[in-house]
Design goal:
By secondary structure, the chain is of the alpha+beta class. It contains four helices and eight strands; from the N terminus they run H-H-E-E-H-E-E-E-E-E-H-E. The strands form two sheets. It has a six-stranded antiparallel beta sheet. A two-stranded antiparallel ribbon has the order 1-2. Helix 1 packs parallel to helix 3.
Length: about 200
């Protein structure tokens, strides 16, 4: 018999997520970073192009979400190297400054957000995590970009936040883009971007 063609299916539009208020990026009494992130992300659904709170991924929206993190984990909040501060997320496993950067990234973008690891320092964006390594001194530190300008140093510098600056959270970290031009920095430093 003749074949009856099937009706073409109409592609469904991707759904825009509902904008929700995320639980505060804050350790509860006795909670580890891992437990905090498991609790926070339990009800977060990753949607491409959107932050974990349902807002579109824009620099302004990332900065607004970073400001919320700063409110709940202000300058000087203890964040150090004991086991309580270890975290395993999309960027990997680490403690202290690593766990800060990895947890902030997952909080901003959602644990399932894609990850690009690169060394294109001219493509640095707000919300990117930087693992800076100096091969000459063996110094290594992880931080999150909060602005591509700096109020003190101007457009040739960036601003960042980090964990474990003397065992505490810091929101006034900064650096010059020219630092990435140094061979001892450029060779081992990586940017982890989620968008």
């Amino acid at each position: 018999g003749p074949t009856i063609p099937t009706e073409p299916t109409t592609p469904t539009e991707p759904t825009t997520p509902t904008v929700t208020e995320l639980p505060a990026f804050k350790l509860q009494d006795g909670e580890t970073v891992q437990q905090m992130m498991t609790r926070i992300m339990a009800n977060v659904t990753y949607t491409p192009g959107y932050l974990s709170n349902g807002q579109p991924i824009t620099e302004d929206n990332i900065k607004a979400l970073l400001a919320e993190i700063e409110t709940s984990m202000p300058e000087g909040t203890p964040w150090d190297e004991d086991d309580r501060f270890n975290y395993s997320g999309k960027l990997g496993y680490g403690g202290a400054c690593n766990s800060w950067g990895y947890a902030v990234s997952d909080y901003l973008f959602g644990k399932e957000a894609p990850l690009t690891k690169h060394q294109n320092f001219d493509q640095l964006k707000v919300g990117d995590v930087v693992w800076m390594k100096n091969s000459a001194t063996n110094y290594s530190h992880v931080f999150v970009i909060t602005s591509l300008t700096n109020p003190y140093w101007g457009p040739d510098a960036f601003s960042a936040c980090d964990g474990n600056r003397s065992g505490k959270v810091s929101w006034d970290s900064d650096g010059r883009f020219s630092t990435f031009d140094k061979p001892e920095i450029a060779s081992g430093t990586y940017i982890y971007s989620r968008y």
